[in-house]
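TA notes, week 10

Several of you asked for a full example with nothing omitted. So below is the full record: structure tokens for the whole chain, then the designed sequence directly under it. When grading your own attempts, check the secondary structure regions first.
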């Protein structure tokens, strides 16, 4: 469910945002020089033909800032190759419909040439413009609320069911991921990720430096720390029963408990509306600031905020909004965060969207989206955030009353806790694969239904902000 923005708060909100931009920039500038640039010992490859685990694709402007991360990954046994967009475009000259497809073609080349299993995309929008540091793919699937939305699954689904390159544009019209008419009937799009893809949607060089430092410090210093075994669950009654008698129970809290059931050895803190502990942003700030290894928000959102309902109540309790992010003080105690809510990870937002009435209504007039504010936070926040880049459909939106966004979120935790997928990109990849195989949205023997529409959108919009090779809990020493 999308949270609507009251127009009377627009001016106040914009003022707060502008103050935060200035605050964040000043703090980032002050802290950035403290980042170590000393290289780690590199484990050299002895193979006559190079093989790599991780491919980093970056704009040239950010390339040198990533050298320390490449050295760190190599020293940890994750053999890493970094390539600039200029090199990608030179290699794929004359190929593809656009730059995004050229990036995807290069990923295919890297899989076949070097055997890569992970891709880290470096780059989001250029500051507040609608131009991009690194290409993105929009899916052309109109559900009445949005005509298109961002997906990084496009860069992970390299091959179709027959092993051929999956363009997501079978009729060759330059429109990608259509789920209607002839395009939907073609077997080219199987949605199965062939590799794990994460993105750092950085908008400037400071954010690159922040994330390089956070990733290296997390992997080197987290393992064995007691705080990692803390999990914070923040939830409520996502679909109050008075709106629909079929919506029984406290959905957000139920899914939080399902996720917890797959995680042995974790000490839970439950900030629920039903137990009276989720009362507003301050308790969320205080709890996260104590440190935790895993963090799960289950409720409603938009690019600016997240919250949920008390039991069977129309009141909306705000849990955390972007103006609260600077107050998080968990320092190096960084959780892997999963956020359940519409558009919390919509990374094409901009303060200039305030001039568009529909964008104001949707809460898109923010310098950066909720999930990225949390991830690139200095002195705290998260180490990685998984969330929805679009309208987040749940089982309550399906005729079958099964599956939906919450299912894939809980499956991510199951992959980590039960199937021992400790590398975050692997847990993301397997969660999406299991969702697709379980609900089979690409069913060529039946007509397109509302459920199949949702079961396509759910995996497409579930994005990972973070390093896909990140070892959850740090690297054993």
């Amino acid at each position: 469910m999308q949270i609507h923005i009251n127009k009377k708060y627009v001016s106040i909100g914009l003022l707060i945002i502008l103050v935060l931009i200035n605050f964040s920039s000043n703090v980032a500038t002050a802290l950035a020089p403290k980042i170590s640039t000393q290289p780690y010992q590199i484990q050299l490859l002895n193979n006559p033909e190079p093989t790599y685990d991780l491919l980093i694709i970056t704009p040239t402007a950010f390339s040198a800032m990533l050298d320390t991360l490449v050295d760190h990954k190599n020293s940890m046994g994750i053999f890493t190759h970094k390539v600039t967009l200029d090199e990608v475009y030179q290699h794929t000259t004359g190929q593809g419909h656009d730059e995004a497809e050229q990036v995807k073609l290069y990923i295919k080349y890297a899989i076949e040439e070097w055997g890569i299993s992970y891709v880290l995309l470096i780059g989001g929008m250029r500051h507040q413009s609608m131009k991009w540091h690194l290409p993105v793919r929009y899916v052309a699937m109109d559900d009445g609320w949005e005509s298109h939305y961002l997906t990084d699954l496009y860069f992970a689904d390299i091959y179709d069911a027959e092993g051929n390159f999956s363009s997501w544009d079978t009729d060759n019209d330059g429109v990608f991921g259509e789920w209607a008419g002839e395009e939907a009937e073609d077997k080219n799009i199987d949605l199965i990720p062939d590799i794990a893809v994460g993105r750092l949607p950085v908008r400037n060089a400071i954010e690159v430096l922040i994330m390089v430092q956070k990733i290296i410090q997390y992997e080197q210093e987290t393992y064995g720390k007691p705080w990692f075994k803390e999990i914070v669950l923040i939830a409520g009654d996502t679909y109050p029963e008075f709106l629909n008698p079929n919506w029984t129970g406290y959905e957000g809290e139920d899914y939080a408990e399902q996720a917890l059931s797959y995680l042995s050895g974790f000490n839970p803190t439950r900030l629920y509306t039903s137990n009276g502990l989720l009362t507003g942003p301050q308790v969320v700030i205080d709890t996260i600031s104590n440190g935790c290894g895993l963090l799960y928000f289950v409720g409603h959102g938009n690019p600016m905020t997240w919250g949920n309902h008390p039991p069977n109540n129309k009141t909306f309790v705000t849990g955390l909004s972007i103006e609260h992010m600077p107050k998080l003080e968990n320092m190096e105690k960084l959780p892997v965060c999963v956020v359940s809510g519409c558009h919390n990870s919509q990374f094409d937002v901009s303060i200039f969207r305030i001039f568009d009435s529909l964008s104001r209504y949707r809460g898109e007039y923010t310098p950066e989206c909720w999930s990225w504010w949390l991830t690139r936070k200095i002195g705290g926040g998260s180490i990685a955030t998984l969330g929805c880049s679009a309208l987040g459909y749940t089982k309550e939106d399906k005729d079958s009353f099964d599956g939906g966004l919450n299912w894939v979120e809980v499956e991510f935790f199951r992959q980590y806790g039960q199937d021992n997928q400790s590398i975050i990109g692997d847990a993301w990849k397997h969660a999406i694969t299991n969702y697709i195989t379980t609900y089979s949205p690409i069913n060529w023997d039946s007509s397109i239904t509302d459920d199949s529409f949702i079961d396509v959108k759910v995996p497409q919009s579930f994005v990972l902000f973070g390093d896909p090779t990140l070892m959850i809990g740090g690297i054993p020493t």
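Residues 5-48 have pLDDT under 50 and may be disordered. Use that as a sanity check on your answer.
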